Amino acid sequence: MRMTRLFLIATGIVLSLWAADGGTAPAAAQTGQPVKLTLTNTAGQKVNIYVANADGSSPRFVGAMAVGARNVLPAQAGQMIIFSLDRTPFQRVVTTTAAAQNIRIALAANDAELPPAIAPSPQGTNQAAAAANGFVWQFAKTQDGPPGASLVYGLPETDAVQLFATCRQDRPNVTIILGSDVASAAAGSALQLNIRGQSFQKQYRASAEVPASGEGLTGFIFDVALNDPLWNAFAAESSVSYGLKQLRDRLPLAGSSLPLSKFISSCSSLATGVVATAPSAAPKTANKAAAKSCVTLNGKRSKQGGRKISVVIVNQTKEYRALYWIDPKGNSVSMGALNAGDSMPMNTFDGHIFEFTDGPGNCIEKMTAAAVASEMNITVPSPGFGPE
Q1: Could you read off the pLDDT tens digit of each residue along the chain, which spans 388 residues?
Q2: Which of 242, 263, 233, 239 is CA-nearest to residue 253?
Q3: Rounded to 10 degrees, what is the CA torsion of 145, 149, 152, 156?
Q4: Are strands 80-85 and 88-94 parallel, antiparallel or unpaired?
Q5: Which residues, 6+ apart, have CB-to-CB distance to 247 below 8 Å?
Q6: Other beta carbons less than 10 A from residue 275's beta carbon
Q7: For every residue of 62-122, which 3-state class applies, written as one string?
Q8: How far apart are CA 177 and CA 100, in angstroms?
Q9: Among 141, 195, 198, residue whose Cα is nearest residue 166
Q10: For residues 22 and 14, what is the distance between their CA atoms, to the nearest angstrom?
Q11: 3-state secondary structure string, the chain?
């Protein structure tokens, strides 16, 4: 089996990994002695890997491992390595002083407490496959400073990001940072960035983005006009590759259509000084079906101990839906998103509760996964809660 070295896109990740245990991250008694860990993922799902910091602060994200992968992770003796599924830890290992150590990543017997996992699509690449590692496309409007908007491909509510694009009313172009291993380049040094898709290829003048603190997104930073063909490529391609002479990095574009459309529309309005007028808000009780399931299951949590099942979640509405799993402690865990007509195969457990929201996060529908049903159909239209 081919061994690969874990690739770090972003550092300094701050997650509430320890909230599930009701405590804070313990400090790792690191000795500074370098060790080499050989990790084998036998958990049956894609696993995220974190390292506990010596100062007791929140764990640091260092990479992810695919099912069945065998990777090498450089570490230090005395470090605590944490393995998680969607920010829920299931295994912790403290490294020893041995120069080479083998670690088998595996789920415990009570894995029904863990999050659902997006299953491979029997018909090929799933429309929502971008969410398989927790990364999703997200649009937001700037809340402070000059009016602006952002487009992000990353893990929601964390610093684990591969693309970060921003536009502002006082700037003519969009600024994009694409995550890549450019740490060997001096911060601000000029780079020739190549981006390529099946029907797109272009070179951009970029600079090396290397945060002085060592935390944050490292990669290529460059400006793009709103009429640049890159945006059409993002809308038409399933993915693009990018890098210097060798295009080592790949940016998945599944699930980007709605956030991208909102981003371009918002940036265009800022550039022209025209603010789009949103339709007037309909009463939140306008859709009784939406209110019924959201109210009936309000406060309910996923049950533990149910048997493992496979379902297909189908968005039968003509609208975007964000998916959340309500864990056994009542927390909402992002599972990605579905555009109109999209579907997502899911490995989950009988008694797990899912919430489906519109773009701004309003609850539209809730469902409980059951062993007797092979599909969960999203059918309730949005009642219209006003501007996003």
Answers
A1: 334 434 333 322 233 333 333 333 333 445 578 889 999 988 777 888 888 766 555 677 888 888 888 889 998 888 888 888 756 677 888 888 888 888 888 876 555 455 666 554 433 333 343 344 678 888 888 766 788 889 999 877 677 889 999 998 888 899 999 999 886 888 899 999 999 998 889 999 999 998 887 677 889 999 999 889 898 888 878 889 999 988 989 999 887 877 888 888 888 888 765 433 333 333 333 344 445 888 888 888 888 877 888 888 888 888 888 888 888 888 887 777 788 888 888 888 888 999 998 876 788 999 998 877 778 889 888 876 544 4
A2: 239
A3: 70
A4: antiparallel
A5: 194, 196, 241
A6: 10
A7: EEEECCCCEEEEEEECCCEEEEEECCEEEEEEECCCCCEEEEEECCCCCHHHCCCEECCCC
A8: 36
A9: 141
A10: 16
A11: CCEEECCCCEECCCCCCCHHHCCCCCCCCCCCCEEEEEEEECCCCCEEEEECCCCCCCCEEEEEECCCCEEEEEEECCCEEEEEECCEEEEEEECCCCCEEEEEECCCCCHHHCCCEECCCCCCCCCCHHHCCCCEEEEEECCCCCCEEEEEEECCCCCCEEEEEEEECCCCCEEEEEECCCCCCCCCCEEEEEEECCCCEEEEEEEEECCCCCCEECEEEEEECCCCHHHHHHHHCCEEEEECCCCCEEEECCCCHHHHHHHHHHHHHHHHCCCCCCCCCCCCCCCHHHHHHHHHCCCCCCCCCCCEEEEEEEECCCCCEEEEEECCCCCEEEEEEECCCCEEEEEEECCCEEEEECCCCCEEEEEECCCCCCEEEECCCCCCCCCC
User: Which amino acid is it at 77?
Assistant: A
Q: Which residue has the tokens 């570490």?
A: 75
* Interatomic CA distance for residues 356 and 363, integer angstroms: 6
Q: Which residue type, as a one-letter code, is found at position 315?
A: N
Upper half-sphere CA count for residue 72 (Cβ side, 13 Å): 11
Residue 98 corresponds to which tokens in the numbers above?
């041995």
The one-letter amino acid at 129: A
Residue with tokens 């056994």: 328
